[in-house]
Specification:
By secondary structure, this protein is of the alpha/beta class. About 45% of the residues lie in helices and about 15% in strands. α1 (about 1-10) packs across α17 (about 375-385), α23 (about 480-495) packs across α26 and α24 runs parallel beside α30. It binds nicotinamide-adenine-dinucleotide (NAD).
Length: about 950
């Protein structure tokens, strides 16, 4: 059957579009030169944001002159063009890209695509229309999608009803198959489609989807749910079943065979359909986001949800087909699944046809679905064989179209492409039709997370530390996983914040220093591996009670689920990371190989360390500073922030327990919950203190540095201060930025944890050559404003909340005064309290965005430490960099740009401690993004970085003359 179809397709005269497509110059070059392909596709992705011919030319030159890229003949001339020729070159390339887009995208909207749909029908091919769209980041955008879907569902029917009848296309073994078939993306109808809060996501989705399903039911239109990223998979299945249970419309859903859960997912839908007596269509596809899923899983340290090998996906496809065919309803009134095959792979299709035959089912029981602009020969061959063929037809504007286009281009030029093999490379038929199981047997790569510690080697392995493997970051919870979600929820519910009074007096603090001082010598001389074990034991205890600790953080500091989970993970990371770096510092290292001279270097601890921590990372920062001081052999007095002593107490108890387990001397670690102004101030002034590790505000940090510089007569050393202070971090949104990414990146960096992160974005610099009222600036602001208004305010322990109360009434008062100052100074309040429902929750300060800020605006200059963002305009990238750098704080910064030279310039010229490109500017990970700033942001070396521990030790060197009477053993 496969051979027949392949032969028919290969000999088909009509619709040779794919051949033409491959002959297209850009594609031809792309297939010959990988470096060219990468840069070209990136340029294509940026293209719609380039509003003038100059910008087009400028970016093209930029991409094509990247290292390792050789522009093909013809294009190199265009790149060198100047004056009028420049415009011409830009026009040519624009034409090429638009042409390519038209191969895959049928029109800008349904009306525009109608002639194409009519033509397809005449050729014997049905359709499913898909709306291409930008990421839906706000309720306003979700409303706009709803209107467009409604338009399709109401209006396509009228035209389509005039078409000639075609039994092959509109009848299956059960009866009528709707002519109009519309694909929807669940996430486009719900801006906060978020697996962390499934019930509210489904409810919000249904609000907008209900009228669409009602209209579909009335008009006899089939609505197909597309399947997006894996994180949405379970929620999409639940949403689909919920919608079908509630409304009786013709429903379909796409399912992906590249998921390891494919067969289970298939069974789940089939069981549900049979149980409820519902008939639905499943479009079985291989899956479009394989690279993303693989990369994302590795970044998160999670098991990879997709098969690592292509043959496994092909095999899973065939397995899923069997499940669906086994559950195909055979007569009206029976529940089950009708199968649509979304594949261009003749082997996969033939296997399904063989499955039909084996079950005595007719060809009409299934349909074939293929993408518009691809595999036309195959479509016609299948139609000739009597199959119902449907095209998946995207419609939409250029900007959203590009992401789709790039996916198609990548697919078409991939070495894995079946179409390329079948029609370009003319691979042998038998080879093409081989059973995937035979093809790949024995070939299976491991998931990347399993080998991540060794692959990345963030620290060297040391068989005497922890699990003997290199350090790797603790994976955060995957809240898309119902099990993890439920466990977390239960833990948060019962979490109790220990009651701790901040009542330690300066005298008590002095007594603690005495004890720490007395314990120092023994701890200094303790086995460094024993000290490292204190940290790995502590990490183990925290890991065992991760969710419970997160629950305490959530309740004590108002961190939402994800933020609280991240806080705990970071604390574990600090322990595991420093444990692996410390022991090596205390063995002597020989310098050089001189004969008769032994040169050695090693380190010793400094003495008593005082740790003073802030409330905003109540576990992570307190734990990181304490762990670093302890593991390097210092004895430690910890003074946590007054707002969050509860979680600090738990950390202290874990560490004390670990110290006991390794047999540490008494008095090594002391806990001193107390007011900063009195007891904290006394602690840092005690002459017996050797090192102070502080993280907090600039005012307190500078005061500590000054106090530490005072050396009374009886103090025999100079104190070292590790001091991490504030930030006023800027994100630049360049003219070529991907706005989907920039809007969410800026919003989340500014308002996650209510802007109370030292790394939070509080200045946003938008480049628009057309001026502050330019199109780009306006579009960005509109989307950012709407996306921000969509955030949900609520208590931190409610998973649905995005923004919770700020830390206390004093903070709320300060932030509100800054907000008032912005109003008084005449700034425009793009988003403010008026845009959110009243919650009645104490200390709730909703997100605020002010536009029209200048460098002198108070909210632009001062660290506010709350959810307030100042937006300022820059006419070009030079000015943006000048503005970004024009601040005393140098902590984090971000740039959204798709211009390679701007990325390079940012790295060189945007002078901050932590720079983030094309992502948000918060969320640094231990070992991966060592964290800390300079300028007024701090005088420490980076926390979670390879040099951090150096600050807690003094180096010692020794030179021994090993020559005796002219003789040295090594000669
Ligand atoms: P804060 O300076 O008010 O308090 C920090 C700690 O210092 C608390 O434990 C407090 O009790 C103590 N303290 C207060 N006065 C003191 C004194 N006179 N002597 C000794 N100790 C004293 O800061 P905060 O409000 O807890 O935290 C927010 C600040 O921390 C922000 O400015 C933020 O940018 C900064 N921060 C910086 C980093 C970083 O890595 N650079 C990380 C987190 C927070």
């Amino acid at each position: 059957m496969g051979t027949k179809m392949l032969d028919l397709a290969r000999n088909h005269k009509s619709g040779l579009l794919s051949k033409q497509f491959y002959q297209d110059k850009i594609m031809d070059w792309s297939m010959k030169d990988h470096n060219f392909k990468v840069q070209m596709f990136r340029f294509v992705d940026a293209f719609p944001a380039l509003t003038t011919p100059d910008m087009v030319h400028d970016h093209l030159v930029d991409y094509m002159t990247q290292p390792g890229v050789k522009a093909p003949p013809g294009m190199d001339l265009a790149l060198k063009a100047g004056g009028v020729a420049k415009g011409l070159a830009a026009k040519t390339i624009s034409g090429q890209i638009t042409g390519m887009a038209h191969n895959f995208i049928a029109g800008t909207d349904a009306a525009d695509a109608l002639p194409m749909l009519t033509k397809l029908w005449k050729q014997g091919i049905a359709f499913s229309v898909d709306l291409l769209g930008e990421a839906c980041v706000s309720n306003a955008e979700a409303d706009a999608y709803q209107a467009k879907y409604l338009d399709l569902v109401e209006n396509l029917v009228e035209t389509a009803s005039g078409w000639e009848a075609n039994d092959r296309l509109e009848r299956d073994h059960l009866g009528v198959v709707p002519r109009v078939n519309v694909s929807i993306k669940v996430s486009s109808l719900c801006a906060l489609f978020n697996p962390i809060a499934p019930e509210s996501s489904i409810a919000d989705f249904m609000e907008r989807a209900r009228p669409i399903f009602d209209a579909a039911k009335r008009n006899g239109v089939l609505i197909n749910f597309d399947m997006e990223h894996f994180a949405f998979k379970d929620l999409t299945l639940d949403t689909f079943m919920h919608a079908c249970d509630e409304i009786d419309f013709e429903a379909g859903i796409a399912m992906q065979a590249y998921l390891k859960s494919g067969v289970d997912d298939a069974k789940r839908i089939c069981d549900w359909a049979q149980r409820t007596g519902r008939v639905v269509t499943v479009r079985l596809v291989k899956g479009a986001y394989w690279d993303f899923e693989t990369i994302h899983a590795e970044q998160e340290g999670w098991p990879c949800p997709v098969w690592n090998e292509k043959w496994q996906t092909d095999q899973c496809f065939e397995e899923m087909v069997k499940v669906f065919l086994d559950h195909c309803p055979t007569k009206a009134g029976e529940g089950g699944v009708k199968l649509a095959l979304g594949s261009h792979n003749v082997r996969s299709i033939a296997a399904a046809l063989a499955g039909l035959e084996a079950r005595g089912l007719g060809m009409e029981t299934i349909e074939l679905q293929m993408l518009h602009g691809m595999a036309d020969q195959l479509k016609h061959a299948a139609a000739d064989m009597g199959l119902r063929v449907r095209e998946y037809v995207p419609v939409g504007e250029m900007i959203p179209g590009m992401a789709y286009l790039v996916r198609r281009l990548l697919e078409n030029t991939s070495n894995e492409s079946w179409l390329k093999a079948g029609f370009m490379d003319n691979v042998d038929t038998a080879m093409l039709l081989t059973d995937p199981a035979n093809k790949g047997a024995g070939i299976d790569r491991q998931d990347l997370y399993m080998i991540a510690p060794e692959r990345h080697e963030l620290t060297p392995p040391d068989e005497r530390v922890g699990n003997a493997r290199p350090f790797y970051t603790e994976p955060m919870r995957d809240f898309a996983d119902a099990h993890q979600r439920r466990m977390f929820e239960a833990a948060v519910k019962v979490a109790v914040v220990p009651e701790v009074a901040n009542d330690h007096t300066p005298e008590q603090a002095g007594e603690m220093i005495t004890q720490a001082h007395e314990a120092f010598d023994a701890w200094r001389d303790f086995d460094p591996y024993g000290r490292a074990r204190v940290l790995t034991l502590t990490a183990g205890m925290m890991r065992a009670q991760r969710d419970e600790l997160a629950g305490v953080v959530c309740k004590e500091s108002n961190k939402t689920w994800r933020e609280a989970d991240a806080d705990v993970c970071e604390a574990i990371d600090f322990c595991e990371y420093y444990a692996r770096l410390a022991p090596n510092m205390f063995t002597s290292h020989r310098l050089g190989r001189f004969i008769g001279e032994l040169d050695e270097l090693w380190y010793q601890p400094k003495g008593v360390a005082v740790v003073i921590s802030p409330w905003n990372f109540p576990l992570a920062i307190c734990c990181g500073m304490t762990a670093a001081a302890l593991v390097t052999g210092n004895t430690v007095v910890v003074k946590p922030a007054e707002q969050t002593p509860g979680i600090a107490k738990i950390m202290f108890e874990f560490m004390t327990n670990a110290l006991m387990q390794v047999g540490a001397p008494e008095g090594v670690l002391q806990f001193c919950p107390s007011p900063g102004e009195t007891t904290g101030a006394a602690l840092v002034r005690d002459h017996r203190v050797g090192v102070i590790a502080f993280t907090g505000s600039k005012a307190v940090g500078l005061d500590i540095i000054q106090a530490a510089a005072v050396t009374p007569e009886d103090q025999l050393h100079v104190k070292r201060v590790v001091c991490e202070m504030g930030g006023k971090n800027a994100i630049i949104v360049d003219a070529s930025a991907d706005l989907d990414e920039a809007v969410l990146g800026v919003r989340n960096s500014a308002f996650a944890f209510q802007g109370q992160k030292c790394s939070a974005c509080s200045r946003c610099i938008v480049v628009d050559p057309e001026g502050p009222n330019g199109q780009r600036m306006q579009l960005f602001l509109e989307r950012l404003g709407e996306a921000t208004k969509t955030l949900v305010l609520g208590r931190a322990d409610n998973p649905n909340s995005d923004v919770s109360p700020v830390i206390d009434a004093e903070a709320a008062g300060n932030i509100n005064r800054y907000i008032q100052s912005a109003r008084d100074e005449g700034l425009t309040e793009l988003v403010g309290v008026k845009d959110f429902p009243e919650t009645g929750i104490e200390n709730m300060v909703p997100p605020h965005i002010f536009t029209g800020a200048s460098e002198d605006s108070t909210i632009y200059r001062q660290e506010i430490f709350g959810p307030v963002l100042a937006v300022i305009h820059a006419k070009d990238f030079d000015e943006a960099l000048r503005l970004a750098n024009g601040h005393m704080y140098k902590l984090t910064g971000g740039v959204f740009t798709r211009k390679p030279t701007h990325i390079d310039r940012s790295k060189r010229e945007f002078r901050v401690g932590n720079l983030y490109i094309n992502r948000g500017c918060t969320g640094a990970l231990v070992g991966r993004q060592p964290f800390g700033g300079f300028g007024m942001s701090g005088v420490g070396s980076k926390a979670g970085g390879p040099e951090y521990l150096m600050q807690f030790v003094d180096p010692r060197a020794c030179c021994e003359n090993t020559m005796r009477r002219g003789f040295a053993p090594e000669l």
